[in-house]
Amino acid sequence: MSAVSLTSIVKKFGGFTAVHRMNMEIPDGSFVTLLGPSGCGKTTTLRMIAGLIDPTEGDITIKGQRINDVPIHKRNLGLVFQNYALFPHKTIAENVAFGLKYRNLSRADAEQKVKDALELVQLPDVGGRYPKQLSGGQQQRIALARAIVIEPDVLLLDEPLSALDANLREDMRVELKRIQHRIGITTVFVTHDQSEALAMSDQVVVMSNGRVEQVGTPEEVYNTPASEFVSRFLGISNILAATCRNIDGSGLELELPAFGRITVPKERAPNVGSTGPAQLVIRAEKLLLTEKSAPADERVAMDGVVEAVDYQGQAARYFVRIGDHHLQVLNMIDQYPFQEGAEVSVRFRPRDCAALPGATA
Ligand code: ATP
To answer: Which residue's alpha carbon is nearest to atom 25 within ligand 1?
Structure first.
């Protein structure tokens, strides 16, 4: 059974529709991320599940029970937001114990649960301190402990890591995933950060303009994007107009003006018809720049010119022109450190490409 299900959910704010007829099934015990740019409706969706706002239309069920009319405190949900919202004048233990107040537990049981929750977030010794005596990352762990201590049916996390600095953020995402795994709690996570979504999720729900663009595992949404939006939102994509010439057991044959014919694996082009306009998608890291004179290999190769280099430490993002096409290439710096103006060979394997229907504007 799905832990959470949304059926034909619509949310309007006056005349503006923030969520358009959304359907979503969140399997029990899974970590599902709502991913999309600012304003796409992910927080609104989470807030409807939480009971902070009401859907205009549609049904929300948790563990099979319709909860549209169930008030927030009776939904048995754990919530963590970007700003930790700990009570400053309560100790850490009191903060964590807060949600247990109305659960009729004995004092000893409540203390044990608080102790277990603090151990789970690896801060067993801070119960007597106050929030301001903890770092931002530690406070966020306490907010998580406070959400988990009530043993909620579902954990709802709205950009919980975005106030943390980059290194701590990466540590915390590992930590959060470890905790989620350990207790097996169904989790709905909201972020606009694609790397966070890919690193943490069992399923990613990619949203744009209040609509679901694609639902899939991190590998599915990254490797086989269902739309140009998904392809551009996740990673750096080169999208080239093509014409589909044929489809057979070996794949989908695309023709591109400057590149000739390229056969993309069928499973990487699920929505493309056998003829007509299509688009070839090549991820920036799937292109390799070599010296122009490098010996031929099994890759498709074209001559290009490096127009700009964006140095990134270990890697560089190259802006390369091939005829009228401008491509982006992401390569490790130690492969071939090219400078602006370098004449290069741009290479890729067709099996690393995906295809989408339609043509680029
Ligand atoms: P962000 O990452 O910036 O929070 P989001 O994807 O979570 O973005 P939402 O907060 O869900 O986006 O907002 C979706 C749309 O609904 C936005 O255009 C927003 O301006 C609008 N919206 C949200 N809440 C309200 C409200 N209470 N009244 C009117 N419009 C709202």
So the answer is: 13
